[in-house]
Amino acid sequence: MTTFTLSIFLLLIFLFRSTNAAVFTILNNCPYTVWVGAVPGGGQQLNSGQTWALSVPSSTVGRIWPRTNCNFDGSGRGKCQTGDCNGLLRCQNYGTPPNTLAEYALNQYNNLDFFDMSLADGFNVPMEFKPSSSGGCTRGILCKSDINGQCPNELRAPGGCNNPCAVFKTNEYCCVSGGNCSPTDFSRFFKTRCPDAYSYPKDDQTSTFTCPGGTNYSVVLCP
């Protein structure tokens, strides 16, 4: 392969990847500061009204979540009341429950994006997760109920509402040891308030959505 041919080949790969990358525009519409966590992507402080445009490569599997009541020093180390990721501003791993999750898997089977909102790690901030680019894909996920205010006593946590798996750590709620795992009264609490979001780990049929690969997305906090 000549140098010229190799250059063209690499350019085509770059263009293909660029075309199929997705941009997640995260808007903090809350009247308070939120420290967004993202894997991949790290994290960003968003004051009320601020946005963060996060570009994610093709074929990536990841998640975005809000963190609240955080305090970081100049080196980006500190702690958050909800969604904390090992005390780092720029997350390298997932957050600690409770936190509302926007999850995605880009360019998967049949070149489709799969995306969902999950309350399997509990809830801390209302959220909307939806496609933002054209292409006929408009179905989004909205969860804006007052889950924190209505949270069952057993699941209450500072700044949020825990999922029962984080509290009781049993297979009934965590679905970790195979076999059937069914809805519970606690999962139904979340499902009745946010019917399009995951309420427990096996809640797939009503909670997973698809768009063509290359779609861009919007994550709105406090929609």
From TrEMBL:
Signal peptide start-end: 1-21
Disulfide bond positions: 30-222, 70-80, 85-91, 143-194, 151-161, 165-174, 175-181
Alphabetical UniProt keywords: Disulfide bond, Signal
InterPro entries reported for this sequence: Osmotin/thaumatin-like_sf, Thaumatin, Thaumatin_CS
Pfam families per the UniProt record, alphabetical: Thaumatin (PF00314)
UniProt KW Signal keyword: yes
Any one biological process term the GO annotation gives: defense response
Similarity section: Belongs to the thaumatin family.
PANTHER family: OS03G0233200 PROTEIN (PTHR31048)
Protein name stated in the entry: Putative thaumatin-like protein
Protein's gene: TLP
